[in-house]
Amino acid sequence: MLIGELAQRAGTSTRAVRYYEQHGLVRPARSANGYRVYDEHELEIVRKIRALLELGFDLADARPFVSCLRTGHRSADECPESVESLRAKLDEIDDAIERLSTIRRSVRARIDAVTAPPPKCEFSP
Q1: Domain segments of the chain: what residues?
Q2: How many other CB atoms sit within 10 Å of the CB of residue 61?
Q3: pLDDT tens, 33-48?
Q4: Is it the case that residue 123 has pLDDT exceeding 80?
Q5: pLDDT tens, residue by residue, 89-120
Q6: Which CATH number fits domain 3-110: 1.10.4030.10, 1.10.1660.10, 2.40.10.10, 2.40.170.20?
Q7: Would you call 26 helix, strand, or coil by DSSP?
Q8: Which of 7, 21, 36, 74 is least enclosed by beta carbons within 10 angstroms?
Q9: Please, are residues 54 and 43 in contact by the beta-carbon 8 Å criterion?
Q10: Do 3 and 28 meet the contact criterion of CB atoms below 8 Å apart?
């Protein structure tokens, strides 16, 4: 398939596919007239890259997953380097959740401080 079909089937743009190629993640063959030609395996790789980007990975983070697929594994997640990357991303997410929870508590406390009803004063006769 040509780059336009690959991009359409992968849900991305031809520009993005060329960008992945520049970073060595996608490897097209070349036809006699010099057009990029992609097979189903490259389509799977582009789809995996897109899925990783949606999860917050960057292109450098995608490299072990692409390597895993290129070595013949059915899933890009099953190689040790991929699992290590997944764990690192999970740690990063957990840290972000902790930071955001701390910020949330601080903001909530500030809101509560200015919206709490004033204390009642009780007078005894």
Answers
A1: 3-110
A2: 17
A3: 999 999 999 999 999 9
A4: no
A5: 999 999 999 999 999 999 999 999 998 777 77
A6: 1.10.1660.10
A7: coil
A8: 74
A9: no
A10: yes
